[in-house]
Write a structure and sequence with these properties.
478 residues, alpha/beta, Alkaline Phosphatase, subunit A, Gyrase A, domain 2, 15 helices, 36% helix, 15% strand, binds 2-acetamido-2-deoxy-beta-D-glucopyranose, binds zinc ion
């Protein structure tokens, strides 16, 4: 009976102790820039297929508008819509001075990125975890004075297509996880975006690049295994936006602002055009109506909105950095300023409802179900999912765990919940263990007393030899 009681206490402590187990799960967030949701449909992708079998595949995900690289990547890192995190364009600009910086130069403008929203690296680090980032947009900047702990920023004229470098970078990231005990890494590849722009999403070159991505996905999973990480590492692979074929050469009537009757660049104090299908304009004082009226309805595939009237589903209005007039074109078109200077065969930056703008999404690891296909969800929801797996308290964000929780195995949900309630669980455990210990002592004392009584009655003592030992065992502090 005593033995049974001890077993009960051991069982109770192990059951209660399990959630406090602190072998934390790790997360690797990978972005293959411009990987459209359906790029695996016309190419053999054995490694992506295997990953779907071993984990979760979403039909597609919906990026935030504006569907360009820096803004949408910052949404992955923060769970906020673009109007809320403030990185509203790839280019830093100043409407007063007219200064514009390129995508690459803008990476180093802290004030552009650090506009009130913390990326997951900083939040994780503030809560005692370690974070890293390789080439991911936003990596070069500091946030409220803090940088991501382990970081690598690509040089200015970087060859984003080099498969050998992709493998070297993969091994570097895995060694951060293994040797530096990093909990979270964001990892960026510049393809198939580059190839999609240059040759178009329907080109053979794009299909070849998707094969290279697929080989790399296989390499990434192999490398995780070689580094002994498989049982702790969750790998999420997604993208920032898709890609759409651009028509020109007489196939369509191009959109060129300078040719629109009644429109004049002289009415503008600042403009951002010749950037794919999107544009933003600042009219000179008193010229807003003139500019708006000239452009509105001027081309059947050009959308013209005053900032405050932008359709709600785009969530691209509530930010001081957004200029008073917003333009975007339908898929197939780009917006030219003075004359056509854009020659890409593929573009993105369109309405995020356009199917061509939807990225892919895969996830594999101990937190995720196996062989599960899920419906589409917005990319703002990836941030709360990652925080949940890491067991950190998220910042204020626009995502919802409810949108992605069904991808997780139940024990991960329990573990992540317990980590945010670790203190409570520890207290509860100590309390319950104390109660259990006390009950065992009371129970044992009663048993001993009863046995002693029986022995006295029968005047037999042989069976009591082991009593003192058991009394010692009661001293064990639970
Ligand atoms: C733009 O430049 C002006 C003049 O240098 C400066 O006062 C202002 O703070 C700048 N604004 C931004 C958003 O950088
Ligand atoms: C965000 O940037 C704008 C200028 O672009 C600035 O006026 C504003 O104060 C910044 N907000 C924060 C919280 O950094
Ligand atoms: C590709 O990357 C490898 C490893 O970093 C480097 O040695 C090689 O020179 C690169 N090749 C090209 C064509 O950039
Ligand atoms: Zn991109």
């Amino acid at each position: 009976m005593l033995w049974t009681a001890s077993l009960c206490v051991l069982w109770a402590s192990s059951v209660l102790g399990a959630p406090v187990n602190n072998e934390k799960q790790k997360v690797l967030l990978i972005s293959f820039d411009g990987f459209r949701w359906d790029y695996d449909r016309d190419v053999d992708t054995p490694n992506l297929d295997q990953m779907a079998e071993d984990g979760v595949k979403a039909l597609y995900v919906t990026p935030p508008y504006l569907t360009i690289t820096s803004p949408t990547h910052f949404t992955l890192l923060t769970g906020r819509y673009i109007e809320n995190h403030g990185v509203i364009h790839n280019m830093f600009f100043n409407t007063t001075t007219g200064e514009k910086k390129s995508y690459y130069q803008s990476q180093f403008v802290d004030q552009w990125w650090d506009n009130g929203t913390l990326p997951i690296w900083i939040t994780a680090q503030r809560q005692g975890l370690k974070a890293g980032s390789l080439h991911f947009p936003g990596t070069a900047s500091s946030y409220q004075g803090q940088f991501v702990m382990h970081k690598e920023v690509e040089p200015q004229l970087y060859n984003y297509k080099n498969e050998t470098a992709w493998r070297e970078n993969t091994d570097k990231v895995m060694s951060w996880f293994r040797d530096k005990n990093v909990n979270f890494v964001s990892f960026y590849f510049g393809e198939p975006d580059g190839t999609g722009h240059r040759y178009g999403p329907d080109s053979n070159e794009r299909r070849e690049m998707v094969k290279q991505v697929d080989r790399t996905v296989g390499y990434i999973r192999q490398s995780a295994e070689r580094h002994g990480l498989t049982h702790r590492l969750n790998i999420i692979i997604t993208s920032d936006h898709g890609m759409s074929t651009v028509y020109r050469n007489g196939l369509v009537e191009e959109i060129t602002l300078s040719k629109i009757p009644g429109f004049s660049f002289g009415d503008l104090s600042f403009h951002l055009v010749d950037y794919g299908p999107s544009g933003m304009l600042s009219p000179k004082p008193g010229r807003l109506e003139a500019v708006y009226n000239a452009l509105k309805g001027a081309h059947p595939h050009l959308h013209v909105y005053k900032k405050e009237d932008v359709p709600e589903h785009l969530r691209f209005t509530k930010n001081d950095r957004i200029l008073p007039i917003i333009l975007w074109a339908d898929p197939g078109y780009v917006i030219n300023g003075y004359f056509p200077v854009q020659f890409n065969k593929g573009e993105h930056g369109y309405d995020n409802q356009a199917m061509d703008m939807k990225p892919f999404f895969r996830a594999v690891g101990p937190a995720f179900h196996k062989n599960l296909k899920v419906g589409p969800f917005e990319t703002v929801n990836i941030y709360p999912l990652m925080c949940h797996i890491l067991g950190i308290e998220p910042e204020v964000n626009d995502g919802h765990l409810d949108a992605t929780k069904h991808m997780l195995v139940t024990s991960t949900a329990a573990r992540a919940e317990s980590s945010s309630h670790r203190k409570y669980m520890k207290n509860a455990f100590t309390g319950l263990a104390a109660v259990a210990g006390f009950l065992v002592i009371v129970f044992a004392a009663a048993v001993v007393q009863r046995l002693l009584k029986q022995k006295r009655k029968t005047k037999r003592s042989g069976s009591l030899r082991d009593l003192p030992e058991k009394e010692d065992a009661h001293q064990t502090p639970f």
